[in-house]
Amino acid sequence: MEPADLPPPASGSSAAQQNAEPPNAALPNAVPPNPGPADSDAPTPAHKPSKRRDNRAAAMQFLYMWDLNRGEDLVATLDSFFKTQDHPREYFAFAEELIRGALAKLDEIDALIKKLAHNWAFNRIARVDLALLRLAIHELLHRRDIPPVVTINEAIELGKTYSTPDSGRFLNGILDKVKDSLDRPARTAEKT
Q: 63-72 b/e with 16+ CB inside 10 Å = b?
């Protein structure tokens, strides 16, 4: 499977338009290459994405693509995907951890999304938003080394770039409910 580029990130398309994608729809455009050495979840200026944001964007793109092309060999698909990126695969180690973790817990994550997405049929959730939810919920539930508020803020920022204008509100509503159910502080990470 060869990932291809979608049109530029969303700027006002509706969730219904996003759901009307053909089965072989391509990936959202990649974020610009990281111009600096930032490798943390610390806030960075809007014009200078962090390495972690680059990795989250790549993970979201892969989860988006995987959802459209299930049944393919994961190892081969990951190899193919990372060959299309602007950085070597090693740069995306965090993305690969997130991808593998989210896919390993996909049934659990999807069940939680279905439970929390009141008034939304699961199959009507915009595919980009679904990829972002899967990624962020995996982080919230299984990555105690990342503060929950950072995970939520990153998902919302990626939603602003790749989804609809209303995406942030939708993502925040679901992710905030997950955050409130956690047994750890929202603003701190656990040392590993």
A: bbbbebeeee
Q: Which helix (H) or strand (E) holds 158?
A: helix 148-162
Query: Greater confidence, 34 or 41?
Result: 41
Helix (H) / strand (E) containing 113 = helix 106-116
CA distance 34 to 173: 29
Cβ contacts of 3 within 8 Å, gap of 6 or more? 26, 27, 61, 65, 80, 81, 84
- Say which CATH number the domain at 102 has: 1.10.940.10
Q: Which of 12, 1, 2 is nearest to 126 (CA)?
A: 12
Report residue 9 as tokens. 């990130």
Is 34 a member of any domain?
Answer: no
What is residue 27's three-state secondary structure? strand
Give the range of the structural domain holding residue 127, as residue numbers without chain letter: 46-180
User: What is this structure's pTM?
Assistant: 0.77
